[in-house]
Write a structure and sequence with these properties.
It contains 11 helices and 10 strands. It has 305 residues and is an alpha/beta fold. The strands form 2 sheets. The protein has an 8-stranded parallel beta sheet with strand order 1-2-3-5-7-8-9-10, sandwiched between helices. Strand 7, helix 6 and strand 8 form a beta-alpha-beta unit. Helix 2 crosses helix 3 and helix 4 runs parallel beside helix 5. The radius of gyration is 19 Å and the shape is globular. The relative contact order is 0.16. It comes from Lichtheimia ornata. Keywords: Metal-binding. It holds the Pfam family TatD_DNase.
Amino acid sequence: MVLYEELCDAHCHPHDDADNRSMIPQLKTGHITLMGVRQDDWDTVAQVAKQCPNNKCIPAFGLHPWFLHRVMVDDKDKEAHYDAVLTSSNESEKSEMISALDPPFPRDEWYNNLKQHLEAHPEAIVGEVGLDRAARLLPGGAIEWHGVKPTSVQCTIEHQLQVLELQLQLAKELNRPMSVHCVQAQGHLLALLQKHAKNNPPIRLCLHSFGGSPGTLPQFMKLKGYTIYVSYSIAINERLGKKLDDLILAVPHDRLLIESDLNTPKGQDDAMVAIAERVAHVHNWTIDQAIKQTHENWCKFIGIR
């Protein structure tokens, strides 16, 4: 028998599936961490979490790197902002994108909105936030990624770092954990965290579905001012093959988390069992041992005693 009540999904988006949101409170998985990624999904995250009993659903509010071009850190008009934060090898494609995009959100507006959501939900964490040097905008600034060919337009890493830094500072101010997306930007993330490594108490930070080199993880683990957790999923990490085993082994037992990273509740329980089985296999544990260890770790990461 799988200990479903102790399974903890450290990072997921099942609320994206509007037709099946009613399934979320009924999931066998004992605890799930619902990731908000844009201002227009934060209220949905809050509503779904409210419908779940006994800390089953922990809300997370943040700005995902795929959408950071939509927010400002300096006061500029629309064209000046997008011209500064977007880059492309095709200038005409960049110009078309700027024309198609809605006006960006001023810093005070999005930042205060984020802070208000976090303060209204003392159990909430900051997420999903992070850096992504591979992501490209979709035609017309669309936000539905599945099956759509991206353009050559990207958000600059400099702008991504500025927005992430503001969210990191807010997490420190409110003493909240963070769930971090990092693609092809481990060095940038490490430098940013080192820049803010002196504040106490330490901030709990999860590198979600981490796919970098196993050799980089000790650098994160040694960071002063942080308690670093690392989470893996079948959806994102299984394609790494043997490297996933090496990554799992590179994480101390007490810092290991598991996740589904699915955007639907359909199949979420199975995905969680699958990643727990992978962890158990790599460590030569029983699946119950894998579930119990990652349950204990998740509770510490979230702050549930």
